[in-house]
TrEMBL record:
Protein name: DJ-1/PfpI family protein
Entry-linked Pfam families: DJ-1_PfpI (PF01965)
EC identifiers of the protein: 4.2.1.-
InterPro entries to which the protein is assigned, alphabetical: Class_I_gatase-like, DJ-1/PfpI, INH-QAR
Ranges of residues in domain DJ-1/PfpI: 3-162
Keywords in alphabetical order: Lyase
Keyword Membrane carried by entry: no
Enzyme class: lyase
Length: 212
């Protein structure tokens, strides 16, 4: 199975690297990191780069596409070259997926119109502008379109896909091999469980945390 992980300037590394660590372990998986142009891209922290091994124009028949998000996706929600490629390959993909605000990119390209999707909780209210029904769930599947919520949800998305593609036993084996057994020190990973003052603070400063 040929998998294309899209990379671009300002993306969040874990959005792509988390799913990569799961999906690359599927039998027959061939993962390629690709961007509008080949070469390194700087991630959102400015301290880490990922390398696009190939240009998207050279990747014409992926079975699976994964689009990561990031705090500054405005350029990608209006990126004609990226959108053109997504629309060109989408009819033949088995799975078209995203993590975090990557769903805004898919939505802006018109691929999620009339569907239900998730995104980072601070970006959910942006989906209706693209005729997409937002869901707060961690992983949402609508046909072949699978979207994950913020950042760490990419691992859950990948395990969900792994189970669908190769069966629960394979997915569970990968989960065990990667020791994915979350036991966070705080219950602050969701606006439903985090202290209200933290939720209010992030909402009030969403323009600093997430510029879309």
């Amino acid at each position: 199975m040929q998998m294309i992980f899209v990379v671009y300037e300002g993306m969040t590394a874990l959005d792509a690297v988390g799913p990569y660590e799961i999906l690359s372990r599927l039998p027959g998986a061939r993962v390629t990191f690709a961007g509008v142009h080949a070469g390194p891209v700087r991630t959102d922290t400015g301290a880490l780069s990922l390398v696009a091994e190939r240009a998207l124009a050279d990747c014409d028949a992926p079975d699976l596409v994964l689009v990561p998000g990031g705090p500054h996706v405005a350029a990608q929600t209006s990126d004609t070259a990226l959108h053109d490629w997504l629309r060109a390959v989408d009819p033949a993909t088995t799975w078209t997926t995203s993590v975090c605000t990557g769903s805004l990119i898919l939505a802006a390209a018109g691929l999620l119109r009339g569907r239900t999707a998730t995104s980072h909780w601070l970006a959910l209210d942006r989906l209706p502008a693209y005729d997409v029904t937002p869901s707060p769930r961690r992983v949402v599947r609508d046909g072949k379109y699978v979207t994950g919520a913020g950042v760490s949800a990419g691992i859950d998305l990948a395990l969900t896909l792994a189970a669908t593609i190769a069966g629960p036993a394979v997915a569970q084996t990968i989960q065990l091999a990667t020791e994915y057994d979350p036991q966070p020190p705080f219950t602050a990973g969701s606006p439903a469980s985090a202290p209200p003052e933290l939720v209010s603070h992030l909402r009030a400063n969403a323009h600093l945390v997430m510029s879309t």
